[in-house]
Amino acid sequence: PIVLGIETSCDETGVGIVRGTTLLGESIASSVEQHSRFGGVVPEVASRAHLEAMTPTVERALRGAGLTLADVDAFAVTAGPGLPGALMVGVAAAKAYALSLGRPLYGVHHLAAHVAVDQLEHGRLPKPCVALLVSGGHSSLLLVPDVATDVRSLGATVDDAAGEAFDKVARVLDLGFPGGPLIDRAAREGDPAAITFPRGKYADGTYDFSFSGLKTAVARWVEARERAGEPVPVADVAASFQEAVVDVLTHKAIKVCRDNGVRDLVIGGGVAANSRLRALAQERCDAAGVRLRIPRPKLCTDNGAMVAALGAELVGAGLAPSALDLPADSSLPIETVSL
Ligand code: ATP
Ligand code: MG
Ligand code: FE
């Protein structure tokens, strides 16, 4: 079966087309530039951009796959969590396609889709696996016995998400938005051991994260420098901040694997594009005897292929589709992989 997936939970209008674990086509439109001068995503702006981008993005994905709408056997859409207005545009569009073509519709959980997308790159996910999802909106550790039916939250950030911390620190350093890739680049010229920033909750025994203390510590450190009239060593601050984040992320991810006897770790979300996170995760997984799977950066950030990948998994597992009065649920719990 051919599944078309639609993602609109934040600022990306993503459409992907998948058969089994094969990506047939995809297209993405992003409103990120319209948000950059605000230093964060403006919900109303995102919703309007989704509305304008939806039909052309679906058409581009179909064209890339050499398919037409009539070839699509099922539709999948992110039902939550995310920005309410943004989600609503995707869910309404998916309902319209499914209803007008007489095809089943699957409303899915955004984070489960971030896990499922790895199947497009590395084949079927081992059962169980552990997932570390780190983006601008989430930092979560999940135990995944079965991505189609059983995803459990073991830990999450208690304040800022990892990507949010990257974006805020980038603003303190005047690097721009979104900050993750800019810090990643600046950090390459810096010394990760130059400044010791706090590692929140590192040894508290939980699987939770905290990044707001780190963000504040970086801001204070930079302010003190500026007050003293000294230059800010941007590369060293970026590298030291980045090291603090990825040290905690990889430490806790491996701890979940160890504590649960799980041998496979998947990392996803926009921050999974971070070069230092990828390197340190590989190093620590090798030492712990854990196999590491990270999809290519394009599949790590929000996209439609991830929704199609999870949709294809649900269809393959023979699960019932969603009712056509499927709601967009901005705070959908992770226990609900599909509605
Ligand atoms: P959601 O949280 O709902 O998934 P999002 O738009 O924040 O939404 P993504 O598109 O997956 O999610 O990720 C964007 C985030 O990833 C931003 O915070 C960005 O700064 C961060 N990011 C992207 N590339 C890198 C990188 N190389 N290093 C660190 N962070 C990065
Ligand atoms: Mg995004
Ligand atoms: Fe996401």
What keywords describe this structure?
alpha/beta, 12 helices, 339 residues, binds fe (iii) ion, binds adenosine-5'-triphosphate, binds magnesium ion
Q: How would you describe what is shown here?
A:
With 339 residues, the protein is an alpha/beta fold. 45% of the residues lie in helices and 19% in strands. The chain contains twelve helices and ten strands. It has helices at 32-36, 43-65, 84-101, 110-116, 118-122, 162-172, 179-187, 212-227, 234-260, 275-288, 297-300, 305-316, and strands at 2-7, 12-19, 22-30, 74-80, 105-109, 129-134, 139-146, 150-156, 264-268, 291-293. The strands form two sheets. A five-stranded mixed β-sheet has the order 3-2-1-4-5, with helices on both faces. A five-stranded mixed β-sheet has the order 8-7-6-9-10, with helices on both faces. A hairpin with a 2-residue loop joins strand 2 (12-19) and strand 3 (22-30). The radius of gyration is 20 Å and the shape is globular. 54% of the residues are buried. The model has no long low-confidence stretch (mean pLDDT 96). The structure holds adenosine-5'-triphosphate, magnesium ion and fe (iii) ion. Residues 9-11, 82, 135-138, 163, 166-167, 178-181, 184, 269-271, 273-274, 301-302 line the site of adenosine-5'-triphosphate (ATP).
| Structural shape | globular
Mean pLDDT over all positions: 96
Unreliable sequence segments: none
Count of helical regions: 12
End-to-end separation: 20 Å
| CA-based gyration radius | 20 Å
Bound molecules: adenosine-5'-triphosphate, magnesium ion, fe (iii) ion
The spatial strand order of the largest sheet comes to: 3-2-1-4-5
**What structural class do the secondary elements suggest?**
alpha/beta
Order of helices and strands: EEEHHEHEHHEEEHHHHEHEHH
Percent in helix:
40-55%
Number of strands: 10
Main location: cytoplasm
Enzyme class: transferase
Pfam families: TsaD
Subcellular location: Cytoplasm
